[in-house]
Amino acid sequence: MREYRGDSLNGRPRGGVDPPIMTANAVVSPIPTSQPRHESPTAVSAMVRLVRDSFAVVEPQADQVGQFFYGMLFSIEPSAREMFPANMQVQRSRLLRALVHVVQMVDRPEDLVPFLRQLGRDHRKFGVISSHYEAVGMALIAAVKRFAGDAWSDEVERAWAEAYTIMARAMLDAAAADDGPASWPAQVVDHERLGWDLAVVRVRPDYPLVYKPGQYLSVEVPQRPRLWRYFTPANAPSPDGVIEFHIRGVENGWVSRSIVAHAKVGDRWRLGPPMGRIGVDRASGRDVLMIAGGTGVAPMRSIIDDLAQWGDNPHVHLFTGGRVRADLYDLPHLQNVAVTNPWLTVTPVLESDPDAYGVEHGTLADIVTRYGAWPDRDVLVAGSPGMIRSTVSRMLVAGTPLDRITYDPFSLD
User: Fold this and answer.
1) Which of 19, 23, 154, 236 could pair covalently with 98 via S-S, beta carbons 3.0-4.6 A apart?
2) Ramachandran assignment for 82, one of left (phi > 0), alpha (psi -120 to 50 degrees), beta (any other)
3) Which residues contact 254 (CB under 8 A, 6 or more apart)?
């Protein structure tokens, strides 16, 4: 599993995203005191256009916007400061990525609403209350207004307020309806270093944590308190409750690098509720294409682990890729599963290792589209932001239907 989630594509992401909208990583919000009114399609389109046009002006000033936003938030609601790490440098950079994702989805309620509901449940672990949402909304609109210049008007302000009302209401309602734990304490039971930048970490929650294969969890570790990051279990739920994470230490990744280098057996972690919509519907009658870059193989492995428990499955073709052979660290396990499960085909792909044998050579985007457009498959994609962007874009050009592609948007730690 990798520490990516948040960048979005100019397509239609069907899944979750890394930064929480409200607290430790991102935002959008005025607190809704009533249900948002039902708007006509024309009114919604106008709202979306105003929000996007004004955001396009603000986006190049990301650092200043983030700094102003958090200063305003902590001024309005000082208690919110306790939800964030002492060093805010990383958090400021994550704010804009979350905003980009939400702004791009604001006119697609079938995608945005499930995402916001997941975030609302996830935010329970921070102790978020209604006043925090109100403060976030005020700070957000003040920040956008400050940097939008002549693009700002009363009409634009109403559009942002309306958009946030929809977002906040979905999150608040989901949080209020969730009667499960806000978070799960867990203990590290194994830490296996596979390389200087890669480790397999296994944790056992103190009480059962139910997730679907392919979903991801927010994680807080003692080495980096209050710096929550999202990681994907690499195994299906098991009887002993142990969850396996594949974690690569990314450049400047405060959390991932600390886990790879310093996590140890006995450490106490905190896990948030499961999120994301990558998965396989065995009853759909459609075969599946999986495309995984690096530790993006984790959600695919979790799904395959689950499917292997059944005798009758759709055919699954997994393309797993990396730059060099070492990036295909899980290939032996996947090939062993394929030997005893004829519904699974595994194709390894290497981008920068021309002398390697038994693999396809090129980028995942090159190789997958070389095989065709896969029009009749459900397509699952996981990897770095660049890998997801290039692969999905190439598939769309090749003729893959957009509504068949599922990925969870990513942001770099």
Assistant:
1) 19
2) alpha
3) 90, 224, 227, 413
Question: Which of 371, 381, 370 lies closest to 404 in space, CA to CA?
Answer: 381
Residues 79-116 pLDDT 10s: 888 777 666 665 665 665 666 667 667 777 777 777 77
Name the residue with tokens 């957000």.
Answer: 140
What is the per-residue pLDDT across 11-53, written as a single tens digit (0 to 9) for each?
Answer: 333 333 333 334 333 333 333 333 344 455 566 778 888 988 9
Beta strand pairing status for 268-271 and 217-220?
A: antiparallel
Spatial separation of the C-alpha atoms in residues 217 and 233, rounded to whole Å:
8
Note whether 233 and 186 are within 8 A (CB): no
Name all domains of the chain by residue range, CATH numbers in brackets: 9-177 (1.10.490.10), 184-271 (2.40.30.10), 288-412 (3.40.50.80)
Separation CA 278–CA 407 (nearest Å) = 6
Q: How far is Cα 197 from Cα 220, in angstroms, rounded to an integer?
A: 19
Q: Are 14 and 114 in contact (CB under 8 A)?
A: no
Q: How many CB atoms lie within 10 A of CB 240?
A: 8
- CA distance linking residue 287 with residue 230, whole number of Å: 28
Averaged pLDDT of the chain: 83
Block residue for tokens 């595994």? 346
State the Cα–Cα distance between residues 322 and 293, nearest whole angstrom. Answer: 6
